[in-house]
Amino acid sequence: MPVDGIRPAPGATPPADVIVRNARIHTGDDRLPEATAVAVRDGLFTAVGDDATIAGQVGPDTRVVDALGRRVIPGLNDSHLHVIRGGRNYLLELRWDGVPSLSAGLAMLAEQARRTPPGEWIRVVGGWSTEQMAEQRMPTISELNAAAPDTPVFVLHLYQSALLNRAALAAVGYGKDTPNPPGGEIVRDHAGNPTGLLLAAPTAILLYQTLAKGPMLSKADQIVSTRHFLRELNRFGLTSAMDAAGGFQSFPDDYAAVMELAKRGELSLRISYYLFPQVPGQELDDLRRWTATVHPGDGDEWLRCAGAGETLVWAGLDYENFREPRPELHARAWTDVDAAVRLLLDHGWGFRIHATYGETISRYLDVFEKIAADGGWPGSGWFFDHAETVTQRGLDRIAALGGAISVQNRMMFQGRAFAERYGAEMARSAPPLRAMLDTGLVVGAGTDATRVSSYNPWLSLAWLVTGRTLSGLSLYPARNRMDRETALRLYTSGSAQLTGENEVKGTITAGKYADLAVLSADYFAVADENIARIESLLTVTGGTIVYAAAEYEGLDVPLPPVSPAWSPVARFGGYQAPGGGGLPPGVTQGLDIAGAAAESADQMTWRQARGLAPAGVPDQRLYQAGPLPGCL
Ligand SMILES: [Zn+2]
Q1: Using omega within 30 degrees of 0 as the cis cutoff, is the peptide bond preceding 252 cis?
Q2: Between residues 498 and 586, which one has the greater pLDDT?
Q3: Which of 78, 159, 82, 127 is nearest to 572 (CA)?
Q4: 3-state secondary structure of 24
Q5: 629 SS3 class
Q6: Whole-angstrom distance, CA of residue 145 vs CA of residue 182
Q7: Are 279 and 312 in contact (CB under 8 A)?
Q8: Is 614 exposed, middle or buried (0-12, 13-18, 19+ CB in 10 A)?
Q9: Which of 141, 241, 262, 386 lies at a CB distance of 3.0 to 4.6 Å from 196, suitable for a disulfide?
Q10: How many Å apart are CA 611 and CA 624, to the nearest integer?
Q11: How far is the CA of 310 from the centre of ligand 1 (A)?
């Protein structure tokens, strides 16, 4: 299947750095939807076509990866991931992401308690929901006390609640006289003493403030932690993420680790970040300072400031605690939002806005339309995040102002709570995925990890395709679900469009960044229930192999060891794959052993024919281990 205009003239093209061949490539590019081989040089795709087309680009130093007939997709791009804050804290956290039962989670906790030195905490900070647990419930405080009698334990469940064991309550010093902060509740027993349960009622600030009382990683370990977190994201085929900042994520202090990694050229994931004022009442001061000193676009293709958000003004933030009624936002918020948006637009800044409810979106649009009526509305470069209950009228107004939407699988984690409060009928279009596309809006996909959803993008892709929660509750009718190709498009080129980077990423196209993933199972062929089990076996970002497993193990850039050594990640890793341990799930799917062996022989013959392997010598490796630029 040689492709006109892509096939290189023989001898005219310098050798590739990396070639992936024998693949089933879904390019995402309508001009050439399917291919079997790609060539990469200097971090870019240089050719996309079939194995014969690409063969001319193999040189003595080219690393040739045999995909063994596996599915290859463009690198995934999570449009809403608190990746910088998540990276800073990753090695401090025990992740319950993917843990199938509370009993398994508590066993992890008990083991971690024995590994944790005095003075340190155990934190389970989101990424899980009672919906995934066989027991369908939260742990009790006494279960936490039994698992960790002496070590402080903090367990965050969505933005709904946090549980502290006895040792954690003592560590934070909450007692009978500790007042409830606005929007939060410290639950108390008959005698008025805190029980250890904290509720977001409905704001999560109490939960965050309490978490912030624990010890942090050292600056040096935050760098190591960030590298390990980015590698964990690469494990699922992510090559880009849009950082939504978040509470307790102050610019520029809390950005030191990613900035240092960017300076060293050690980021394995591209990050576009948005700036989020941290102090209620002082938001405009922050925005004025930033617009005077930072410019959207500052940075490079690996780490770039993309604008402001997901919060501009705290009073305009509607927390999505579906166990609590929808918050009524104070009228004062809109004066400040008006001033903030005008300031940003005056300085050419784009922005993103957290808005869960249609009512909130409508208030924001009132402000935006007033500004637009005064002239100078940019037409694009802004979008809403979440939008679970946006109305059709809201979608039309967003479209009229050139806005877009970033959606996340938060309903997968809390759809049951939503349906219990608002009814199954309202849940059917929360969010109205199909209507967003039918309205012609650009939509990017993501997770809202790490404190609400898990960062595993395959959960979110499964949610877009099946419309089911983690407990299997079916939320959406077929008309509000996506076919797999559309879901993947949202997670690649949709997200890239939100940052205006669709000319350089989102599809496997010659000239774009060489970002791709070789999958453990064919996303387009597996049963619905197996979409969430897919992982990447080989992830390439900018031509560098940033994650490698199974046959490819050892090809990825080495990482420094986990530090501190007692980190839960050193013992448990991150996302707990179903089945646990051994090869990633799906490694053997798609191709049986005999098929893989035949492909291996085919690869050997192919390499021998090009003088890349000695004739007649059996080769156990499925790739040619030449030096890889940028990999040292
Ligand atoms: Zn948000």
Answers
A1: yes
A2: 498
A3: 127
A4: strand
A5: coil
A6: 28
A7: no
A8: exposed
A9: 141
A10: 11
A11: 6
452 Cα to the center of ligand 1, angstroms: 9
Distance 35 CA to ligand 1 centre (A): 37
User: How remote is the CA of residue 317 from the centroid of ligand 1, in Å?
Assistant: 8
450 prior amide bond cis, ω within 30: yes
User: Residue 213 has what pLDDT?
Assistant: 96
Closest residue by Cα to residue 494 from 527, 461, 540: 461
Give me the count of residues in the chain. Answer: 632
Tell me the C-alpha distance between 535 and 555, whole Å: 17
What is the number of other CB atoms lying within 10 angstroms of the CB of residue 30? 7
Q: Is the peptide bond before 431 cis (omega within 30 degrees of 0)?
A: yes
CA 56 / ligand 1 centre spacing (Å): 48
Nearest residue to 95 (alpha-carbon basis) of 130, 135, 126, 134: 126
Q: How far, in Å, are 85, 223, 320, 571, 630 from residue 89 at the CA level? A: 6, 10, 23, 16, 27
8-state DSSP, 166:
H
Gap from CA of 354 to ligand 1 centroid (Å)? 4
Bin 584: left if φ > 0, else alpha if -120 < ψ < 50, else beta.
beta
Q: Concatenated DSSP letters for 325-379?
A: PPPPPPTHHHHHHHHHHHHHHHTT--EEEEE-SHHHHHHHHHHHHHHHHTS---S
User: What is residue 321's predicted lDDT score, i.e. its pLDDT?
Assistant: 86
- At position 521, the amino acid (one-letter code) is A
Using only the alpha carbons of the chain, give its radius of gyration.
25
Ligand 1 centroid – CA 347 distance (Å): 24
How high does pLDDT run on average in the chain? 90
pLDDT in tens, 356-381: 999 999 999 999 999 999 998 998 99
Which two tokens mark 23? Answer: 């693949």
pLDDT category at 576 given cuts 50, 70, 90 is: very high
Structure confidence at residue 267 as a pLDDT band (50, 70, 90): very high
- Chain centroid offset of residue 234 CA: 10
Ligand 1 centre distance from Cα of residue 246 (Å):
8
Share of the chain above pLDDT 90, in %: 85
Query: What's the CA gap between 592 and 259, in Å, rounded?
Result: 44
Three-state SS at 422 = helix
Q: Exposed, middle or buried by CB within 10 Å (0-12, 13-18, 19+), for 501?
A: buried
Distance 395 CA to ligand 1 centre (A): 18
Cα of 367 from ligand 1 centre, angstroms: 19
How far apart CA 191 and CA 181 sit, in angstroms, is 20
What is the model's pTM? 0.90
Pairing of strands 24-26, 71-74: parallel
Tell me the CA–centroid distance for residue 411 and ligand 1, in Å. Answer: 13
Provide the residue type at 31 as one letter. R
* Ligand 1 centroid to residue 119 C-alpha, Å: 32
Alpha-helical (H) ranges within 235-302 are 256-264, 283-293
How remote is the CA of residue 385 from the centroid of ligand 1, in Å?
6
Question: What tens digit of pLDDT does each residue of 317-370 get?
Answer: 998 889 888 988 988 899 999 999 999 999 999 999 999 999 999 999 999 999
Tell how far the Cα of 352 is from the centroid of ligand 1, in angstroms: 10
Whole-number Å distance, alpha carbon 503 to ligand 1 midpoint, is 27
Q: Where are the alpha helices (DSSP H) in 132-276?
A: 141-147, 166-172, 205-211, 219-234, 256-264
Confidence grade of residue 625 (pLDDT, cut at 50, 70, 90): very low
236 Cα–ligand 1 center, Å: 22
448 CA distance to ligand 1 middle (Å):
7
